[in-house]
Design goal:
mainly alpha
């Protein structure tokens, strides 16, 4: 409630207006003071000066900083594995070198801890089954399609088929031929792979590659020259003494060994083609395990008697199977990154390491043939690593 009274004086022209307000209503001065008290903290803050130099823009961290951050969060061993896998221009050669080293270690473990004779097809079945399981888990963990895209499935199928034929043929050959002859025939796989890569993939086959492959193969021949001569003499003596022996069986086994090498070389080319087309070398390993596991199981059931392995034999088979899985993955990665004829030469590193290990463990003086063979392989592999990858594959 408010009333207004006005008084006019004759002596003055001024008009005085009296306004009466309710006591409960706040005065305008008090409300203004309250508003000023609330606004004052906001007005007291200095307004930041913004220009094109002081404005903050969202930016990503530099690549070097991100790399250092990742390296600080991972262990040195993990950093080394990543560097070997894809962190160097020599990654293709390094993957193949580590693959050959793992195969060499598998042979060493077998020679030291083997206490029971396990049939070859049974051993191959175990290794293929473990490879299938591990490769499937790897693909599921990395969220990759298990069977690949439709464009590469035919390549993966052919890779699995040729690899399985090569393995089964070599097992049959090694059971019918002396050990040294089977090893020499298997040593022609890198040569066949280089020839097949030149024919089907149109890879370059340089003079240096041919010289390196020939040097390594002659090194293997030097290893087994004496054994080949001795075993050949015994084979001829056995055939001469046995009236029912057929020379055709021996020739058939040799031809089957050469066929195994051709199939193995073709499989290498398909591994390279499938890994490059799918950008995932693990698919080639999985496809081989998927096809070879039931095939080796059938061969074990048909051609051999099943042998129940003991605990130590089972443990050795599991360890060798896991190591073989990583060796195959590194092999596929090396073929994916580098030319077949160049990385195939590095595979002879396994034979050289075996001879060096035998020379170190035996107390006898090394023969001249072994020294020459080891020298040829070591020099050839070192020259390949020194020359490095081609410029177009960096």
């Amino acid at each position: 409630m408010a009333t207004a009274t006005s008084e006019s004086k004759n002596a003055s022209d001024h008009v005085v207006e009296l306004i009466v307000r309710d006591a409960s209503a706040p005065s305008s001065e008090e409300s203004d003071s309250e508003d000023k008290d609330q606004i004052a903290p906001l007005l007291s803050q200095e307004r930041p000066k913004i220009n094109i130099f002081t404005a903050s823009y969202p930016r990503t961290k530099p690549r070097a900083e991100v790399t250092r951050l990742l390296e600080s969060e991972t262990s040195p061993f993990t950093n080394f594995i990543l560097w070997v896998w894809n962190g160097s221009r020599y990654s293709g050669l390094l993957c193949m070198a580590f693959s050959s080293t793992i195969y060499f270690l598998m042979g060493v473990l077998t020679n030291i801890f083997s206490v029971q004779a396990i049939p070859l097809f049974e051993t191959a079945f175990t290794r293929c089954a473990i490879t299938l399981i591990l490769s499937y888990l790897w693909l599921r963990w990395s969220e990759q399609p298990v069977f690949g895209t439709s464009q590469v499935r035919i390549i993966l199928l052919l890779r699995a088929l040729t690899g399985c034929i090569s393995m089964s043929s070599f097992i049959y050959c090694s059971q019918r031929l002396p050990f040294s002859q089977a090893i020499v025939l298997n040593s022609t796989v890198p040569i066949m792979a280089s020839i097949m890569a030149r024919v089907f993939l149109h890879d370059k086959l340089k003079v240096a590659d041919i010289a390196s492959l020939a040097c390594c193969f002659f090194g293997v021949l030097f290893f087994f020259r004496e054994a080949l001569a001795t075993e050949g003499y015994f084979v001829k003596a056995k055939e001469a003494s046995n009236a029912h022996a057929k020379t055709g069986h021996h020739i058939f086994a040799i031809l089957l060994g050469l066929f195994s090498s051709i199939m193995g070389g073709t499989s290498y080319c398909l591994i390279r083609a499938g890994a490059k087309a799918s950008d995932q070398p693990m698919l080639t390993v999985f496809s081989f395990g998927l096809f070879a596991s039931p095939a080796m199981g059938i061969c074990t059931y048909i051609f051999e008697d099943f042998v129940l392995p003991g605990f130590q034999s089972i443990l050795l088979m599991l360890v060798n199977s896991i190591m073989g899985f990583f060796a195959e993955v590194l092999l596929a990665r090396g073929l994916q990154l580098e030319r077949t004829s160049k990385v195939a030469n590095v595979q002879y590193l396994e034979a050289g390491l075996r001879q060096l290990c035998s020379l170190a463990l035996t107390r006898l003086a090394p023969s001249f043939e072994r020294l020459v063979g080891v020298s040829l392989i070591v020099i050839s592999v070192c020259c390949t690593m020194y020359i490095g990858p081609d410029k177009e594959t960096e």
